[in-house]
Amino acid sequence: LSPVCLGSLRRAASINAEYMGFNVDLPDNIHDEVQRITTASEITDAFYELFPRSKWQVEPVWGMNEVYVASKKGHGSDKVFYTKHIDGPWFFYPFASVYRCIVAVSKNSEIATLFPEIDKKKVLTDGDVCGFDFSREIHWINTVDGKANQDDDFRRICLKLHYVVYPKYFWWYGQALAYLTTCYNTAARQLFVSTLMPKTNLAEAASSLIVNTTLFAYGVQEYMGWTNVAYVLTCFWIGSKSDFRLRILMTSFVHYFKYLATYYYREDVCFQRFKRDSLFFKTVALVQIAWYYLSGLPIRASTLFSLLLVFIGYGLSGMATTALGMDLTYFGAELGQVKPKQITKFPYDVCPHPMIVGQVIALVGVHVVIRDLLPWLAPLHIACYLAVLSQEVFDFHKSPAKKSSSKSWD
User: Fold this and answer.
1) Would you tell me which of 5, 93, 226, 362 could form a disulfide with 33, CB atoms 3.0–4.6 Å apart?
2) Confidence (pTM)
């Protein structure tokens, strides 16, 4: 940033407790600098290292770019930045994303930007750039322990630059997402600005609503995933309009495909999201199995045999999960997240692959009860588990790619 531009920003910071200026409304000297930085090769080249030019197009979203000056205390609705959150609602828009890039303008050693899903913490100071998915990546800011540097600015000043990434030659598709995100950002920003320093009961209520809505949106994203929820709700709607078995087929086997694909590829996997997605879809599958099993449980001789198999099978699988731990259960060793460990306690000391063996035993018990209503459900689950077992036994996975010497974003 030129000295003239920096001086203008710092004057704005000294006058305003909070200041936001969209690119189109900025004074000419700042506007031109923001335009230049937005198209800087240092940023666009970093995108194209992640998204090859032969397949992807990266373009600025000019209507969202802004200069942001904020207190380091977090007043009013500005507190939302100090809580885990996602910025946008278009999480379900497939094959394209809008990215926000934070360009630090002020000198800073007090505020860190955190990305809990990938366990990264960045203290952005003058000239640093950090980018993330506007509608999908959980992030927040927090104070850094320790004494601030004497040359730190007393306010947090940054540029918020935005880029839409979409498949090459699908210009209209990418621009549709850019337009939707711009409309949402403009409306949300107006509400946000009006509640930065609330002085009335109505403003306080609006500020509280912003924070609580943000907490709810973050909670769903962290523990279930908005895309996953949208997919399951869509499948339930399709099932309600057609055949309920279609809904079961579309929602009961997603986690197996995630297991197989993740074990095979292993690279560029967000471990926290993989665990979240796998647990979510496995829970959806088990809830549906339990519903049809319990609602169709007959009073006959085979019922006791079925209950016994279910109890033994899921009990064995549960003990295996407890012994192994969640991280190792979900390929933590294969993905390099935890160190490999030999488990020798029960049930691993008496049974090979007890988790899958237990699931298969339980599913045989389930099949005894639901075979008339859904004769294919339990056998398909068993076939999927056997596919996962085969992949693990034969260690079938892609050979790791050679490490690139080029540097890019984390």
Assistant:
1) 5
2) 0.83
